[in-house]
Amino acid sequence: MRKSMSLLVVVAVFLVVAWQGEPRPARVTQQPDPITVVESTADHLTLHVSLPEMYVHTADMADGNTYHVITVEGSAMSDAGQPAVPYFGRWILIPNGTNAEVVVDPGPPEILEGIQLQPAQLPLLNLEDAPPPPFTRDEEIYATDADYPGVFAQLEPVKIMRGQQLTILRLYPYQYNPVQERLLTYPGLTVTVRFVGDLEPIPIRLKSETYDEMMRRIAINADAVLSAEEEAGPPVDPHPYTGPYGWDYLIFTHPQFAAAANKFAAWKNKQGFKTLVTQIPTKWRASDIKNAIQGAYDNWDIAPEYVLLIGDAEYVPTHYKTLHPYESMAGGKGTQGYTASDLYYVTLQGNDYIPDIAIGRLSVDTATEADDRVDGIINYEKNPVTDRSFYDTVTIAAYFQDGIAGIASPDGIADSRFAQTSEDLALFFSQPQYNINKTVKRIYYAKPNVTPTKWNNNQFVSLNNFGGGPAGNPGDPIPAHLKKPGFAWNGDAQDITNAVQAGTFLLTHRDHGGRQRWSYPAYEALNVFLLRNHSYLPVVWSVNCQTGWFDNETDFKKKPGIKDQTKDYEESFSEWWERPWFRLVDGDGGAVGIIAATRVTDSIYNDRLMWGWTDAIWPSFIKIGGAPGVGAVYRMGDVLNLGKLYMSTQVPDNVWRKTHFETYHWFGDPSMEIRTETPPLTLATKPDLWLWALHPRDFTVHVSWEDLYGTGS
User: Fold this and answer.
1) CB-CB neighbours of 236 under 10 Å
2) Which of 10, 128, 600, 676 has the most CB atoms less than 10 A away?
3) What is the dihedral of CA 137, 143, 148, 149, to 10 degrees?
4) Any idea what the CATH number is for the domain that residue 210 is in?
5) Cβ distance 461 to 604 under 8 Å?
6) Which of 566, 655, 675 is nearest to 602 (CA)?
7) What's the confidence (pLDDT) of residue 123?
8) Whole-model pTM above 0.70?
9) What is residue 20's predicted lDDT score, i.e. its pLDDT?
């Protein structure tokens, strides 16, 4: 059916302008997920795409042209320079032993003429005062008289996660011809993925309730595939009375921290894990530790699910595989080197960077620090805070960035999504319709010469297709409760200190960052150093650049020809959260764990990660492309991974996506569950006489050397 271009475009723009003319209350997204599962079996998956409402506005871009900007809730971001055509990405499982084939029935299109669709731009780096990346437009695509992208569905290369084949299916119900200035939309698009081959089960030693749950969280056909694979598997023979051979929790540490590691292993064992501590020899490199983990994963009756590294980078090395992409950008050469990443310790199957085990690190330099760090986590789990206000409070710090020195003066329109993403979380946690029922402490900052008025409208940062959160869409007015003078926008370091010391189970900071600081609201290493929050240990999300640069002792030394930009004594901002001064005095304080990035990160990737981590713990957060109705995940190593998996469906498959998998770490126990509610009081009794005391038994223990990791050494 052919529709009138002028009427549709004018109506779309008029509606957007009407929304921007007066404040809108925060809203719950009413649009259903556009991706509907028609049928899902072990043989095929059929999906139908029902197009959601499309928001259209115009934007002046750096090449001097005015473009149409299209936002579709739940859709993903295009590669830089290409037409910003909305599309949808979803994880799917591919039954083991089969290959996937895609069959498409697009149906008739609806046609919009006169559309000058913007080219997607590189996201803004999360560096303070960073200039916007140079404008880019793929002139070859824009000069081609053909529909772009020219396909309706596409599979990424197959990946393997914990013995299971999976990939991202990208659906393209929008096709754009730049020469004709014509946008075709396909509201009846149907896509079938056929699975050809003989189905095979996940090897029984790789089966994991945790990863089954994660797959059900991310993949739209997980139930059908996992059920079919289980039915296809052989009967499971019971292990002998000694139980299956192997350990599900591995700790690698330097001998200096062995006492703390053994104490922590004993605690994990009490929680039901089988924990093995390995003191790494002095000559071991990152590759040796990786080989040990690989041997355990490949050979044990039960493959490990969690790995903890105890020690700073000079004691327990990290990986340097990828030259950071900022090194090839203006102003970036010599500033990043190779990305420090513990990720590659746990990428154990497939030619991909999808983790098969959750990993964490306690970055400590002394035995005392290690002992204090371990005690803090044990106390968090064993003797939790009972103050209800601690669990009722979320603290959210953010910066309304407006104005770039020498490039653009403040105009009331945000230049980034920092504050909008933070307000998405603030409204979700606090407004009654979301039923989370938390008190939110907003610590927001804008420079004194800035009057926040509207969220970013695609100015300076590519936000196309990123809307639908509780705080609204690109270009929307900020909520009335955030307008000056009623809201001061003057959050500072003292506000953050007060919030942490009063008690808050979660602290997030969304802004620029450096190796030893948050930029706005400003918070320095010294502020963390002096924290006295005792047992009120929050989980901290430091969603900005470089605050997790823990490897200052080994960073630039790993690759010749790159000048060392850090000093050995320059501990990172995240490390100060792990070991503040008054923890040594009070025996507690700082954070129980922190998510932070080891190098420079990109704005939109960070915002998608923040959405993904929130949805992992509170599955009703993401309305389109999330996992409503599926169980929450609380173990922080798994939360970190789920956020990355969600992010990967919303951004292109490029080096920046890989970099965000590499750079974000959980500095803490990967198996630790974040406490979001007041723990219930549990009463237990014990009998005066244990029954087995009446019937003593003798036990014989045989000890012999075994090649635990199957490495032959």
Assistant:
1) 9
2) 600
3) -60
4) 2.60.40.3800
5) yes
6) 655
7) 73
8) yes
9) 31
In a domain, 347, yes or no: no
Query: What amino acid is encoded at 458 in this protein?
Result: N
Q: Which of 19, 141, 9 is nearest to 66 (CA)?
A: 9
Q: Which domain holds residue 140?
A: 31-232
Q: Judge whether 312 lies within some domain.
A: no
Report the alpha-carbon distance of residue 464 to residue 652 in Å, rounded. 13
**Helix runs in 300-449, H state only:** 367-382, 388-392, 418-430
CA dihedral sign, ordered 606, 609, 615, 621: positive
Residue 578's Cα: distance from chain center in Å? 20
Counting the structural domains of the chain, the total is 2
611: closest CA among 402, 373, 424, 332? 424
Q: Domain boundary at 504, 522, 540, which?
A: 522
Does residue 37 contact residue 45 with C-beta atoms inside 8 Å?
Answer: yes
Cis omega (within 30 of 0) on the bond before 109? no
Do 292 and 286 meet the contact criterion of CB atoms below 8 Å apart? Answer: no
Q: How far is CA 75 from CA 280, 433, 580, in A?
A: 46, 24, 42
Angle between helices 655-663 and 603-617 (to 10 degrees): 50
Dihedral sign from CA coordinates of 505, 674, 492, 442: negative
Summarize pLDDT for 515-571 with one digit per residue, the tens: 999 999 999 999 999 999 999 999 999 999 999 999 999 987 655 556 666 776 689
Q: What is the dihedral of CA 365, 369, 613, 617, to 10 degrees?
A: 150
Contact between 48 and 90 (Cβ < 8 Å): no
Two tokens, residue 115: 């559309």
DSSP state of 32: P
Peptide bond connecting 32 to the previous residue in cis, omega within 30 degrees of 0:
no
Q: Which of 232, 252, 282 is the last residue of a domain?
A: 232
Would you state the pLDDT for residue 607?
A: 95
Q: Which is it for the CA torsion 280, 285, 291, 293, positive or negative?
A: positive
Gap between the Cα atoms of 69 and 662, Å rounded: 31
- For residue 104, what pLDDT is reported? 98
Residue 214's SS3 state is: helix
DSSP state of 22: S
pLDDT at 355 (0 to 100): 98
Q: Is residue 481 one of the residues assigned to a domain?
A: yes
Domain assignment present for residue 534? The answer is no
Say what the pLDDT of residue 234 is: 72
Classify residue 320 by burial, with Cβ atoms within 10 Å: 0-12, 13-18, 19+.
Answer: buried
Count the Cβ atoms, other than its own, within 10 Å of residue 711: 13
Q: Determine the pLDDT at residue 121.
A: 84
What one-letter code names the amino acid at 639?
V
> Rounded to whole angstroms, how far apart are CA atoms 297 and 303?
5
Backbone angles phi, psi at 682, to 5 degrees: -110, 125
